[in-house]
Amino acid sequence: KIQKYWRVAKISWSNSLVYRLNLVMWRVRVVVQLLAAYWLWIAVFSRNQVAFGYNQAQMLTYILGGALIRNLVLSQRSGDAQVEISSGDLNNYLVRPINYFRYWLARDGADKLLNAVFGVGELVVLVILLRPPILGPVGGQSLAGLLAMIVGAMMMYFYLSLVVSMTTFWYPEQNGWPQRFLIFMILEFLAGGLFPLDILPESVLAVVKWLPTSYLVFLPMQVYLGRVGGRELAVSLLIMLAWVGILKQLAQMVFKRGLRIYEAYGR
Hints:
The protein is built from 11 helices and 2 strands; from the N terminus they run ααββααααααααα. By secondary structure, it is mainly α. It has a two-stranded antiparallel ribbon with strand order 1-2. The two termini are 29 Å apart. The mean pLDDT is 87.
């Protein structure tokens, strides 16, 4: 059983390398976005030694490290499920001995690995060229917690992605792209990929930090910087595990209900 999903991952990896111009343009977009955030904070710290409770080294470490985590966590192929639902191609999976969720997990895994390879390479080049003051991880315990949190964040985002894609059962117009675009713009903002969430007003942060999105980029980088550790880290990992379970159940429930009204449009 595992072998067939391994083959799915290999095929997905190969397909991603076929359209090389698309891949290059995507990576250029990622680097430009990273550089925009980097130079913004360079400008802020040119006038301030400390801003929003961060010094320059901490903030630049957050921006660069957060970019790498975004490559691992926020990259996905499961968004293509919305196209299959709206076009009726979902039929191809319903009549075959394949688990639809595991199929997309395999494709997402290949995409994350590809983005991670490029992300590490880009980060190494930028560090060599820009020579920013960056910090290493605080202690082995924090590093182990960080790795566990990144794995949990990837699973959370996977189920979030599927839930959003499956809204296409009810809103199939334009392959479900409008609602997905809007929802994921909000999710990326609330993930803390471009700035640490704790620079938000306290009243807003009090709400945002309880959302699952805060575990995608913001909290892993807080662990890396040593701002979250010990008991707080253990509690955060348990909360993340609970969110993974909740989102998994939600995705399965939405899928089952969507199948009840699925009419294989386009077929």
